[in-house]
Design a protein that fits this description.
Blueprint: H1 9-17, H2 22-55, H3 64-82, E1 88-89, E2 97-101, H4 113-116, E3 127-137, H5 141-157, E4 161-167, E5 172-177, E6 184-190, E7 194-200, E8 204-205
Antiparallel strand pairs: 1-3, 2-3, 3-7, 3-8, 4-5, 5-6, 6-7
Helix pairs in contact: 3-5
């Protein structure tokens, strides 16, 4: 009579029903705790995502005066790379100087969807973009093309990103973005031997207590760039 390859029934049941070893209990408890933590984290992540979707991304906070000084400095750097010593500052340049504008700083959350789809979407109070602009005269079209090529080459070497570059019979323009910011500086040739330089910042909320002008706009310091042309 041959013996069965399987263990006796009583022995099999005793192995099956004996208590879990301590280390297996620890592993199971750890796994359960980890599952609960992942579930909780997922719930928090979903709640935050839903809240951001509903309320919209908050605008960063920035002092407009500090921003305008930064933009002014960026336009000075661009001027230095243009290398147009024959040019002079155009005191009558339209839009010249530094200013704040909140007309393009809109609501973004779903709770304000009706404002966003309006024919005239309102801007968010206390949020503005800053610009710094000036123009040169005495830059012929051919000189403007050469100046933009020089600026593009040198600024790229310094780590700036070229976001737009076109030289044609109808449009001569260079847009660049300095490293580490969302600011944009644009150089564009205009009729009558004019060359315009303007820098823009992204929309940002200005801090409470920001000094304001009599027209209700944040106060900005006087423009300095391009320094060599301002005496």
């Amino acid at each position: 009579m041959t013996s069965s390859p399987w263990p006796p029934h009583d022995l099999y049941m005793s192995q099956l029903c004996r208590p879990l070893r301590p280390h297996r209990k620890i592993l199971l408890a750890t796994a359960a705790a980890l599952a609960m933590a992942v579930t909780a984290a997922g719930g928090v992540w979903l709640a935050r995502g839903a809240g951001r979707l509903w309320n919209g991304d908050p605008y960063p906070v920035a002092d407009p005066a500090v921003t305008s000084q930064r933009l002014d400095g960026l336009t000075q750097q661009v001027y230095d790379t243009l290398d147009v010593p024959q040019a002079t500052l155009d005191p009558k340049w339209p839009g010249g100087g530094q200013e704040t504008d909140g007309s393009g700083c809109y609501y973004t959350g779903l709770k304000d969807l009706t404002k966003q789809v309006s024919d005239s979407p309102p801007s968010v109070p206390g949020v503005v973009a800053v610009s710094s602009e000036w123009g040169l005269k005495g830059v012929t079209p051919s000189q403007a093309v050469s100046a933009l090529r020089r600026a593009r080459k040198e600024l790229t070497r310094r780590g700036w990103k070229v976001t737009s570059y076109e030289i044609s019979d109808h449009w001569t323009v260079l847009s660049v973005q300095p490293p580490g910011t969302d600011d944009v500086v644009q150089v564009e040739a205009f009729p009558y031997d004019r060359l315009g330089v303007v820098a823009y910042s992204e929309c940002a909320r200005y801090p409470s207590g920001t000094p304001m002008t009599e027209w209700g706009d944040p106060e900005l310091p006087a423009q300095q760039a391009p320094a060599p042309l301002r005496g």
